[in-house]
Design brief:
The protein has 14 helices and 15 strands. It is α+β, with helices and mostly antiparallel strands. Helix 1 runs antiparallel to helix 2 and helix 12 packs antiparallel against helix 14. It is rod-shaped, with a radius of gyration of 57 Å.
């Protein structure tokens, strides 16, 4: 306000001096008359009055600006003093020129004991070098600096602050000073120390778990590699993730040849379908349970040989990874085939004995009772009638016995090939109760030469299928078909009976079905039993490639 008034007086003096100079010049030259002089003075006074009013308006605006600056300064002072962060104004030597209330709280002393003191007086001894470097970099490089420091404390708990400094050449005119803020980061440092401790502890636990895992993995690998059966782990796509040594030994592959490939490439076409259904069933099982899903399928060795294998599947995790334990069934199948051969021989023996002994005795008894009935006819009709009925019962027993003999060994392939045996099987079935049985042969040129044991089992499967259709389906027509399919053989038994209930078809609960499936597995085939449209049952036995006969 005082400065504005002084400026105004100086300006007025300057204008008056200019006017007086011009007036003297005019009088000296005699160029101006008195009236003109008065006119100029009036004009000059008017200009001065206008300029005075302008200065008064400017003065008023300056007073408003000064008032606003004072209010802003007061607000800044309040914010500065009540700020939660400690603020300091320092000289270049580190002497505290001003501080706020938060600084007083942080240092634990009144402001009067902080101002005019040096900052290093409040810093712990171990951080004095860091403070010196902080000040040196700030003043010489004129860059904002930030440094963590420990303060001197009277208690046992250390207090750590983050010192952030910036040069300020306008705070004190003519002098260089710097502005500093101190943020208490003690809790942060404490948390960082705790977190660091937890990280070290966690790392130690992880390392210990890793050691345990490696030890467990080595033990598991040792057990897996010592296992006699192949063990394979696959993912949800069927890709092989791991395997043991037995897998390589049984199938003739190197480990790197199997890792990453799809398991289906090791299966036959029919085996792929069996594996797919088994995988779908296993996906519904609980994780970590013992293998419940077991299936038999043909696998291919590296040299192309087909191996009958039992697969036991177990689900490993929620991501649908599976472990498959494989059991080579070649020795088992060989023993079963030998047992089946002994069984066939025993069935033939029993059928011959029934035919030669019991059959002959029943036939003789039937003849004797018929002769007695004829002798008693006309003499004792009651007795004759009883003997006739007895003779008829013996005839029915003979028919049943012949059926049993037929089921045991109705036909053999000793004297011909499979086609002849199947034709004989169809011819041997009597047409009774409107039942017709026929045989169809197709693509006979594609039929491969089958080993005798394979022909026997196919004949027994056809026999069992025909027997089931006659006894249980209520069929009126039965068709036995044999054809060459893709270098293999396909046998079909089709009837127009009641069909197979769904539960029975899915689980093969029927004894006849189980026998057919068992016989088919002995010769490396795949058996499928389904309902035949519009009604009836269809049994299909497929052999992709018959195994070589054993010498």
């Amino acid at each position: 306000m005082k400065e504005s008034r002084n400026d105004y007086d100086a300006l007025s003096r300057d204008l008056r001096a200019i006017a007086e100079t011009k007036l003297r010049e005019r009088r000296a030259n005699g160029e101006e008359e008195e009236e003109e002089e008065e006119e100029d003075l009036k004009s000059l006074v008017e200009e001065l009055s206008i300029h005075q009013l302008e200065l008064e308006v400017q003065n008023e605006e300056l007073r408003k600006i000064q008032h606003d600056l004072r209010a802003a300064h007061d607000r800044y002072a309040v914010l500065y003093d009540k700020a939660p962060v400690a603020f300091l104004t320092l000289s270049t030597k580190g002497q505290v020129l001003n501080c706020n209330r938060a600084a007083s709280t942080l240092f634990g002393r009144p402001r009067t004991h902080i101002i005019d003191h040096f900052l290093h007086e409040f810093v712990a001894a171990e951080c004095q070098d860091a403070l010196h470097l902080h000040c040196y970099a700030l003043i010489n490089h004129s860059q904002t600096q930030a440094t963590a420091l420990n303060l001197k404390t009277s208690g046992d708990v250390p207090r750590t602050v983050l010192l952030e400094s910036e040069l300020d050449s306008q705070l004190i005119p003519g002098e260089l000073s710097w502005f500093a803020s101190l943020t208490d980061i003690s809790d942060q440092k404490k948390l960082e120390a705790e977190l660091s401790s937890l990280n070290r502890e966690l790392e130690e636990r992880v390392q210990e778990r890793a050691r345990q895992y490696l030890a467990s993995r080595q033990e598991t690998l040792a057990v897996l590699n010592a296992a006699a059966d192949p063990i394979i782990t696959i993912d949800s796509e069927g890709l092989i993730q791991s395997l043991n040594r037995a897998t390589c030994r049984v199938f003739g592959y190197a480990e790197d040849e199997l890792l990453g490939i799809n398991l289906r490439t090791l299966l036959t076409n029919a085996g792929v379908d069996v594996f797919r259904r088994a995988l779908e069933d296993c996906a519904e099982e609980e994780v970590g349970k013992a293998p419940k899903v077991r299936r038999e399928a043909l696998w291919r060795m590296k040299n192309g040989t087909k191996v009958p294998v039992e697969m036991a599947l177990a689900r490993i995790d929620e991501a649908k990874h599976f472990t498959i334990v494989l059991r080579d069934l070649r020795d088992k199948k060989r023993l079963e085939l030998e047992v089946m051969q002994v069984t066939e021989s025993e069935r033939s023996r029993i059928s011959r004995e029934l035919h030669d002994s019991l059959g002959q005795e029943l036939a003789a008894m039937s003849i004797d009772t018929r002769l007695i009935a004829e002798d008693k006819a006309g003499i004792d009709e009651a007795t004759a009638s009883k003997f006739r009925r007895f003779s008829e019962q013996l005839q029915r027993c003979i028919v049943q016995l012949r059926t049993i003999i037929f089921d045991l060994a109705p036909i053999d392939v000793s004297d011909g090939d499979l086609v002849d045996a199947l034709e004989a099987l169809v011819r041997s079935i009597p047409e009774q109760d409107d039942l017709k049985c026929s045989f169809h042969l197709s693509h006979s040129e594609s039929l491969m030469a089958l080993p005798r044991e394979t022909e026997i089992q196919l004949l027994r499967i056809a026999q069992e299928g025909v027997h089931n259709a006659r006894k249980h389906s209520g069929a009126k027509q039965i068709v036995v078909a044999l054809s060459g399919k893709g270098g293999g053989v396909e046998l079909q038994i089709i009837d127009d009976g009641r069909g197979v209930p769904r539960k029975k078809r899915s689980s093969f609960a029927g004894q006849g079905f189980r026998i057919m499936e068992y016989r088919c597995s002995l010769i490396g085939g795949e058996l499928e039993i389904m309902n035949y449209r519009p009604n009836g049952t269809k049994v299909v036995c497929r052999i992709e490639q018959a195994p070589a006969s054993e010498e």
